[in-house]
Design goal:
Blueprint (H helix, E strand, L loop, with lengths): L2 E2 L6 H5 L28 E7 L4 E6 L12 E5 L5 E4 L2 H11 L2 E9 L11 H5 L22 E9 L2 E8 L2 H10 L2 E2 L5 H9 L3 E7 L11 E6 L7 H4 L7 E9 L2 E4 L3 E3 L44 H11 L4 E9 L20 H10 L6 H10 L12 H9 L16 H25 L2 E9 L10 E4 L8 E9 L11 E4 L5 E5 L8 H10 L8 H11 L19 H22 L1
Parallel strand pairs: 1-9, 2-12, 6-18, 14-15
Antiparallel strand pairs: 2-3, 3-11, 4-10, 5-11, 7-8, 8-10, 12-16, 13-17, 15-16, 18-19, 19-20
Helix pairs in contact: 4-5, 8-10, 9-11, 13-14
């Protein structure tokens, strides 16, 4: 079967979904493996480690969804790599968690709010409401290419069949790729020809026979080049609009682009902190709807911000479509959780349950990559109760202390081969990723979004010792405007943005009832921090009328900002005037 060629940064764009899954403690779902949906990550992540000796080490995360026999990936490089290996998604998870933009808020109270009455239920009642305050050996070289195509390297690398080749002409390169099963879209040929003319070599990979897409992991390449470059032009072949791109640079200094604009946002936009203070569904605010998991974050008190990507996209568009934002530049974050212990001593453990419990105790997470590797060596028996559910089968074996027969296991487990795969695909790559973080003193994180029309120039980068540090934490202050008309949680607020500009944040809602009535309404949930703004205003309006029908209560303090209450007061005034006129007649 012919495979289809995909460019190095367009794999995720073609598929639209990334399959990478962030590890989580297995105990959270009562087994080693949890049934979780793939994380939607239609974007690109890469880390360049600038080694200081004229070489780069690039960790490139490959995001792909589709059939294993349709997976293929090609990357142009300026020189033949001196080494090819596999990396770990955990590297990007750890760096992403520590360097993603955070939009945090401080709080300040001005004035004195109405004291909360001591209601019978108190904090115990409030707590019931969530919104209340509170590398492998060399393989067979395969069929020889045309005489004018040079195959520099072909070997098994982790789950991949990897080949490095160069060609004298684009036609020769295409002929070799076509002959060897790489189906190149016609639209990509002119762009590939430009890289051939620039004397680039090409790294082409596909999955080894019997390997599933769950085992796809980052590719790590080391090659002679002092200036990092992203071959963006190939990405334009198949991408999404405003595709998010995150590039990390580890080295002695901070990184900047040579040929793209570098933006310095003011972050003077209230939507980066949410849509304003709310009452219902979380008085303290929180992530906006549609916030991408694991993506650039922010939000009220540090949650994800749905608006951030749009904010950067607008800035990039205004700058002409080719620009980066420095999201973080500082000391390398302290990460000491990447390494895992060797498992070579488990090569003679033939009981699958004992083997699984042993690697679990050593910190191996029940993620998609591990599940893919284990399934290759411990396939689900045909006709068993777990057919179609590899995670269920592994959980059964993990909990089995009687040889796994109750799970359908009939023997044939080769622990030595499994140990070798775990060492090459998980233990070794995680150790090498930790070494990058330990040996490099500084880290830069650059971010942009791009559409196909703007991907006409490959961005290049360099380290510059004169660049300043950039924090990923941005702070605003939410000011509560207290008075005797408001409880603290219902008082109006404004937000003071990083520039010093103030903007409205939340309208206030007064409460004109008595303390006893407030306790009744709070207990009923009709005037409480977890009620909707409309419910608050309706309740406030109802309490503004005297129970005997004698008219409105007298308001204490400044007028409320509530439209409903103001309207009620105006209506009451009109009725009173009409009544006076009628009596004068």
């Amino acid at each position: 079967m012919r495979t289809s060629m995909r460019t190095w940064w367009s794999v995720a764009a073609v598929a639209g979904l990334g399959w990478a899954m962030a590890p989580a403690p297995a105990s959270a779902c009562g087994g080693f493996f949890c049934q979780r949906e793939p994380m939607n990550q239609a974007g690109e992540n890469i880390l360049f480690s600038v080694e200081g000796d004229g070489t780069l080490t690039a960790h490139v995360q490959i995001l792909y969804s589709g059939a294993a026999d349709a997976f293929a990936w090609i990357l142009p490089l300026p020189s033949v790599p001196t080494s090819i290996g596999v990396g770990t998604d955990a590297l990007f998870e750890q760096l992403g968690y520590r360097t993603a933009p955070r939009f945090e808020s401080q709080s300040r109270i001005e004035g004195t709010c109405r004291a909360e009455p001591s209601c019978p239920y108190g904090p115990e009642y409030d707590s019931a409401y969530p919104g209340a305050m509170a590398g492998g050996g060399a393989a067979d070289g395969g069929a020889a290419g045309p005489p004018d195509v040079t195959v520099y390297l072909r070997e098994a690398v982790g789950p991949y069949d990897a080949v490095v080749l160069g060609a004298a002409s684009a036609a020769d390169l295409f002929a070799w790729l076509d002959t060897n099963g790489y189906d190149i879209p016609d639209v990509s040929r002119p762009i590939v020809a430009e890289y051939v003319a620039a004397r680039h070599v090409f790294v082409a990979i596909r999955l080894l026979t019997g390997v599933d897409t769950q085992e796809i992991q980052p590719l790590v390449l080391r090659y002679a080049e002092a200036q990092p470059c992203v071959p963006m032009r190939l990405t334009a072949i198949a991408t999404i609009d405003d595709m998010p791109i995150t590039a990390y640079f580890a080295g002695a200094s901070y990184a900047t682009s040579n040929n793209y604009s570098m933006l310095e946002p003011s972050y003077d936009e209230t939507r980066l902190w949410g849509e304003g203070g709310s009452y219902g569904g979380g008085y303290y605010g929180g992530p906006g709807p549609g916030a991408p998991p694991g993506g650039p974050g922010g939000g009220f008190y540090g949650g994800p911000s749905a608006y951030y990507s749009t904010y950067v996209s607008n800035l990039v568009d205004d700058a002409g479509g080719r620009a980066f934002v420095t999201e973080f530049a500082g000391a390398m974050p302290a990460v000491d959780s990447l390494t895992l212990p060797d498992v070579t001593d488990l090569a003679s453990v033939t009981d699958p349950g004992t083997f699984l419990r042993s690697i679990r105790e050593r910190g191996f997470s029940g993620d998609a990559q591990l599940l893919g590797i284990l399934t290759r060596f411990l396939p689900v028996p045909a006709g068993s109760a777990y057919e179609g559910s590899p995670s269920g089968y592994m959980n059964c074996l993990w909990g089995s202390y009687e040889g796994g027969a109750e799970c359908g296991y009939t023997g044939g487990f080769d622990p030595a081969a499994l140990v070798d795969a775990l060492q090459r695909q998980i233990v070794g790559p995680r150790r090498e990723a930790q070494d990058v973080l330990d040996r490099q003193p500084r880290l830069t994180r650059l971010y942009t979004t791009m559409s196909a029309a703007d991907m006409t120039v490959d961005p290049t980068f360099t380290l510059d010792s004169g660049l300043p540090e950039v924090s990923n934490v941005h702070t605003a202050t939410v000011v509560t405007e207290c008075s005797a008309s408001y409880f603290e949680w219902s008082a109006p607020q404004h937000i003071e943005l990083p520039s010093g500009r103030s903007a409205p944040w939340r309208d206030g809602v007064t409460y004109l009832g008595s303390d006893e009535e407030y306790c009744m309404d709070r207990g009923a949930g009709t005037f409480s921090p977890w009620a909707s703004a409309d419910t608050l205003r309706e309740t406030s309006s109802s309490r503004s009328v005297r129970p005997t029908g004698g008219g409105l209560r007298c308001a204490v303090g400044p007028a409320t900002r509530s439209t409903g209450l103001v309207g009620m007061i105006a209506l009451g005034a009109s009725l009173a005037m009409a009544f006076v006129r009628r009596r004068r007649r």
